[in-house]
Amino acid sequence: MEERIVIVGAGQAGGELAAGLRKHGYKGRVLLLGDEAHPPYQRPPLSKGFLQGKVALSDLYLKPLATYERFEIELKTGTRVEAIHRSSREISLGDGSRLGYDKLVLATGGRARPLNLPGLEGARPENLFALRSISDVEAMRGRFVSGNRLVIIGGGYVGLEVAAVAVQLGLQVTLLEAAPRLLSRVTGPEVSSFIERLHRERGVQFRLACEVRGLELDEARRQVRGVSLAYQGVPELLEADLVLVGIGLTPNTELASAAGLAVDNGIVVDEYACTADPDILAVGDCANQPSAYTGGRIRLESVPNAIEHARVAVATLMGKREPYAAIPWFWSDQYGLKLQMVGLSTGYEQCVTRGSAEGKEFSAFYLKDRRVIAADVIGRPAEFMVAKRLVSSRVEVDATRLGDAAVPLNSFAA
Amino acid sequence: MAKITFIEADGKEHQVEAQEGQSVMQAAMDNLVPGIVAECGGFASCATCHGYVDEAWTTKLPAPDAAEEGMISCAYHVQPNSRLTCQLKVTPALDGLVVRLPVSQTSE
Description:
By secondary structure, chain A is an alpha/beta fold. Chain A has helices at about 10-25, 50, 55-60, 65-70, 135-140, 155-170, 190-200, 255-260, 305-315, 380-395, 400; strands at about 5-10, 30-35, 75, 80-85, 90-95, 100, 105, 110, 130, 150-155, 170-175, 205, 210-215, 225-230, 235-240, 240-245, 250, 265-270, 280, 285-290, 295-300, 330-335, 335-345, 350-355, 360-370, 370-380. Chain A has three domains: about 5-110 and about 250-315, FAD/NAD(P)-binding domain, CATH 3.50.50.60; about 130-245, 3-Layer(bba) Sandwich (FAD/NAD(P)-binding domain), CATH 3.50.50; about 335-410, Enolase-like, domain 1. Chain B is α+β, with helices and mostly antiparallel strands. In chain B, strand 1 and strand 2 form a beta hairpin. The longest helix of chain B has 8 residues, at about 65-75. At the A-B interface, helix 1, helix 9, strand 22 and helix 10 of A face helix 3 of B. Chain B: InterPro entries: 2Fe-2S_ferredoxin-like_sf (IPR036010), 2Fe-2S_ferredoxin-type (IPR001041), Adrenodoxin-like (IPR001055), Beta-grasp_dom_sf (IPR012675). Chain B: This is Reductase.
């Protein structure tokens, strides 16, 4: 019988993996199963251009359906996988049928972390949203109308990108964040305050270091009327026409753990994307992998990681061994301003900035042991390209010269 | 429709049919051309769709905007005819376009 690779999850990682197998001349069957109604698509524009109406649905698709047909990638959308039977190398699907595999790749991604709050038990209010999928955006679009009051819970990238789109569409936006500053998990205070000012100038209201206490529902428990919170010790009720929760991602690891695979903040894999079962791999947002860059284990939630991890898995499936070596990077876009981030700044000792925050273009370099371990670059694409090299080459830099705008950044790169 | 030829750094050629209005990068993606990674999906944020446009075509293309110029200026293996293919829109005038791909995008 023909060899068969089954990919569970038709997101960016799964789609990339299927395409990568064909690019490398894999001759067996490739089945790509996704529980959404769409072929693999780009998620980053969901909270940016797609929500704003500037990017069309078909432009989100990474490849047209015809490409899957032409390259014999058996794409099955709307297909849920219920269980993995490792002893017989089969999976069972939502319709009760079973499907055999020779190699199984879990590219299950993640889901928006839900809000657990008093008052919300058992209720599914129509105007309470998360943002992870096309259907999430389609559900909220009707309420993205000028004048509506939007309360966003969570000051991470999703919350901020939605805030940017919303104020530009004329909504009244208040963003609530538990930490004392925005993006606190991923960036330094210099960038946090820049981003905060950027949004305040456009009219976004903030409640930082704020404790969300509960949601006020209508009598039918179908609508959120407001969000109750404590801000600087004072209780407050913010009325809302819609509420967006953007408090992170929960990796979809249930299939793996039910099958007895190790799960620890993601499905545990080695540097070749393999789980302890030689026939099962895991890639992308759902996988926890060793990182040559940090020296520890990491789980990344990003498109570049999904692409690179899929590439590693393709090599493994084709019988080559190419360990994951990429440096993580991320991007965002708010009010047309490009934010590009490379590396992880956790544990940095010093932050050196170049450019001016007032001029809407500056870079922040995070140093540890005289080396740039991460950088956030705003509105300066050329500096981002150099920052990527500085982080990957681990060259020593002089912090004073790095902060001197008269010294070309290029001169630091190896 | 326009025919575009992508030539990988190792010389392997891929001729594809590109649709009018799509980007040159997307035409490569739709046809599984190796060597165009396109991490950011076409927003001039990553420079992994970098290509060299054959001389005959450079003047038929609109000049790069500031974002593209910035990304290109500090990319790997830059040449005077370097472009980000995500920023190049396919038009009938581009029929026959040849794009060579840099050695830095041959990791696949």
